[in-house]
Amino acid sequence: MFGNLFEEEEEEGFSSTSSKGRVSKGGDEPPPPRGRSNLCGIKNQGGTCYLNSLLQTLMFTPEFRGEDK
């Protein structure tokens, strides 16, 4: 169904260099935090977009994070 879900592919026009000039290690570490929220995403490898949305939903649920609001 998802094919080679965890195998990396090289695409034409894809650059592993970020806007700050650093070279990415191909998914070894997450991207640097962004903005005031200090959050960063995960690389979409096909089905991981569903996992990403679940994680984001849980992280913004006060009961899950243990916050009393």
From TrEMBL:
Entries under Pfam families matching the protein: UCH
GO molecular function, one term: cysteine-type deubiquitinase activity
Domain spans labelled USP: 40-69
Region ranges (Disordered): 1-40
GO biological process: protein deubiquitination
UniProt biased composition (Acidic residues): 1-13
Protein name, entry field: USP domain-containing protein
UniProt source species: Monopterus albus (Swamp eel)
Taxonomic placement: Eukaryota, Metazoa, Chordata, Craniata, Vertebrata
